[in-house]
Design brief:
α1 runs parallel beside α2. The protein is globular and about 50 Å long. The longest helix is centred in the N-terminal third of the chain and has 12 residues. The chain has about 220 residues and is α/β, with parallel strands linked by helices. It has eight helices and seven strands, in the order αβαβαβαβαβαβααβ. Strands 3-2-1-4-5-7-6 form a seven-stranded mixed beta sheet.
Amino acid sequence: MRLLRLPGVYRPQGDTHLLTEVLSDSGLRRGGRVLDVGTGTGALAVAAVRAGAGSVVAVDVSVPAVVTASINTLLRGMPVRVAHGDALEGFGGERFDAVVSNPPYVPSDADEVPARGAARAWEAGRGGRALLDRLCGLAPDLLSPGGILLVVHSDLSDVDLTLRQLRRRGMHASVVAQRRQGFGPVLRARAPMLERCGLIEPGQRDEELVVVRGERQG
């Protein structure tokens, strides 16, 4: 998929591609409504329409990402509404048949996450769960009965915790796809910190990407 990408917008990589593959085979209800949390280039919004979505709301806190996703979906004439802001705060009153997200999940040695800049696409605080914890807690409130959550993140960010949090909210949750890949530039640069924190073994320079599927009952 060829997509326009403005400077500072996260480039679709292995995690986006893995989630796109899962989304295409997810059994998404034809004509359903989809929320794309942290849309970036709009790659997942495009994939959702191709998978049968009737409408998509694609949200990002980055203005360049909003412009990029708007252009990429408009050029394709797709039923996508792109919005600027925090999807986990601004859409509590709406319900969707699916929520998809490739959130920031790279662990750092600081609790704070950046308020601006390209690093917002990957920086996720200690443990890499600054957005993941919020997403797991709010997902059932964003989904219609029977709706699904599809979220991709690294095994460095505690996949078991994602599963437990979703199950505590009454959702069925399971790992539906996994893929091993080498570290990119960001993880390579902070490998010594990850080793000190016990998140990787000494000398380890790869991670496992995981897609978690959660299903709201009803």
